[in-house]
Amino acid sequence: MWQEIDRVLISREEIAARLEDLAGTIASELAGGELLVIGVLKGAVIFLADLVRKLPFPVEIDFLAVSSYGKSSVSSGVVRITKDLDYDITGRRVLLVEDIVDTGLTLNYLLGHLKSRQPQLLKVCVLLDKPERRKVPVQVDYVGFTIPDEFVVGYGLDYAGRYRNLPDICVLKREVYQAPRA
Ligand SMILES: O=P(O)(O)OC[C@H]1O[C@H](OP(=O)(O)OP(=O)(O)O)[C@H](O)[C@@H]1O
Ligand code: HPA
Ligand SMILES: [Mg+2]
Q1: Where do the Phosphoribosyltransferase domain residues begin and end (predicted)?
Q2: Rg of the chain taking only CA atoms, in angstroms
Q3: In testing the pocket of ligand 1, which one of 38, 106, 152 has its CB within 8 Å of the most ligand atoms?
Q4: Domain presence at residue 171
Q5: Atom of ligand 1 lying closest to residue 101 CA
Q6: In angstroms, what is the span from residue 130 Cα to ligand 2's centroid?
Q7: pLDDT at residue 98 tops 60
Q8: β-sheet bridge partners, residue 83
Q9: d(CA 49, CA 115)
């Protein structure tokens, strides 16, 4: 069924348990004012959907879309906004939700883009942090899990558009995304 998967890295049960803690921390630190939660399409959709339902106060939700990986397992280095926000975030309290910070190029670009609109508060929550691959330092306020340098799929994360619906976070077999040596 999931033939290209090597192994489960983080199970659905571990994700659910960590989300309880993460939501508790976010709720205690960001309560007391209106909050706009911004998800980065498409990878963050499943994480955001689970996270916001654990917050004990009403939030608004918006999305923006970027693409840098396309059909590859390596960042193109060029971040492109393919869908911008619907809301004006000037003066607002914002929580940006991402599935993964890897090289940091996407988040770095997005933070510049969002800060230029002068929100009152801008916090960043990522489900996965892969620090070994970082090319630029980035602000991350809340992290679900720190993971090793392996390409992961599932729980929103894709390889060439596939596997987002896998309920666990899994490591893809290396031969799937690494071209055989000549
Ligand atoms: O830290 P980086 O190296 O920039 O990588 C992280 C970004 O790459 C992925 O996006 P992708 O371009 O694959 O879009 P997607 O969310 O639609 O899959 C992921 O969802 C992050 O947005
Ligand atoms: O490990 C990853 N998996 C899926 N998408 C990604 N985008 C950056 N790193 C990854
Ligand atoms: Mg992707």
Answers
A1: 14-159
A2: 16
A3: 106
A4: no
A5: 1
A6: 9
A7: yes
A8: 65
A9: 24
Q: Any idea how long the chain is? A: 182
Residue 1 domain flag:
no
- Rounded percentage of the chain residues whose pLDDT exceeds 70: 98
**102 catalytically annotated:** yes
Q: Does 67 map to a domain? A: yes
Sequence-distant (≥ 6) Cβ neighbours of residue 125 within 8 angstroms = 22, 26, 51, 95, 96, 97, 98, 140, 141, 142, 143
Using a CB cutoff of 5 Å, list residues around ligand 3, an ion: 69, 158
pLDDT in tens, 58-72: 999 999 999 887 777
> Which residues form the pocket of ligand 2, taking CB atoms under 6 Å from any ligand atom?
69, 100, 102, 151-153, 157
Q: How far is the CA of 67 from the centre of ligand 1 (A)?
A: 6
Cα separation, 142 vs 15, whole angstroms: 14
Ligand 3 centroid from CA 178, angstroms = 16
| Cα gap 130→114, rounded to integer Å | 23
Return the CATH number at 49. 3.40.50.2020
Neighbouring CB atoms inside 10 A of 129's CB total 20
Helix spans in 31-155 (H): 45-52, 105-115
On whether residue 179 sits in a domain, the answer given is: no
Q: What is the interface pTM, i.e. ipTM, of the complex? A: 0.98
Compute the mean pLDDT over every residue in the chain, rounded to the nearest whole number.
94
